[in-house]
Write a structure and sequence with these properties.
By secondary structure, the protein is mainly alpha-helical. The chain is 54% helix and 4% strand. Helix 4 packs parallel to helix 8.
Length: 211
């Protein structure tokens, strides 16, 4: 746990108000609607205080899932780095490189200040109201940064490269199969629908907007 914490691995938690969460799964309007419904039940229905918050359970499931994914990846890469002879002590650069790339690939983008601390933490609750998922947007841009694939510890670089190659292969397999079945693929790099699959007038985007 100390290695995860000191390396900056994204571990998110829950607050009582969805809008204030560092990471969010859905619109905070759902949370507000659910709260209004619960208040009405308390006011007009005997025993209404026991009305469950269904939206809250979705958010709890999402947060639990992403934390588990990041933890599992970190443990695997920690062992790989250790076996390869890299420094995996608390606060080491190798673990920071690993944590950063796990964060990027799981939608937990960060902006580090000159002291190395994540300066997004206190701003994301406000930014999420405007941009919905600020950390996710930043992580998508960071995936396009070539330095993420060419610098840092060997274990971290290999991890990013393998994920990149895996994504390209999966995308190629999907679009190739679609083309064989008669669908159209937009290969024009200047088009706003480049890479999308068109079938019977409907367009499909295999990456789901993720670069």
């Amino acid at each position: 746990y100390q290695e995860m914490k000191s390396s900056g691995l994204g571990m998110t938690g829950l607050t009582n108000v969805l809008q204030k969460n560092d990471e969010i799964f859905h619109s905070n309007y759902l949370e507000k609607a659910n709260q209004m419904f619960k208040e009405a039940m308390i006011k007009y229905v005997p025993g209404g205080k026991w009305t469950p918050n269904a939206v809250r359970s979705f958010d709890r499931a999402f947060v639990g899932y992403v934390n588990n994914v990041r933890t599992s990846l970190f443990l695997n890469l920690y062992q790989a780095a250790k076996l390869s002879g890299e420094d995996v002590s608390v606060g080491s650069q190798a673990l920071q490189d690993i944590a950063k790339r796990i964060n990027i690939l799981t939608g937990y983008g960060t902006v580090r200040n000159k002291d190395g601390n994540d300066s997004l933490g206190k701003y994301t609750p406000v930014l999420n109201v405007i941009f919905w998922a600020t950390r996710k947007l930043i992580s998508d841009f960071e995936k396009l940064n070539p330095l993420m694939y060419t610098t840092g510890s060997k274990t971290a670089r290999n991890f990013m490269l393998k994920r990149l190659l895996g994504s390209v292969m999966v995308y190629g397999a999907i679009t190739g199969a679609a083309e064989l079945m008669g669908a159209e693929i937009d290969y024009d790099p200047g088009s706003t629908t480049v890479g999308m699959i068109k079938n019977n007038g409907t367009r499909y985007e295999p990456p789901g907007g993720i670069p």
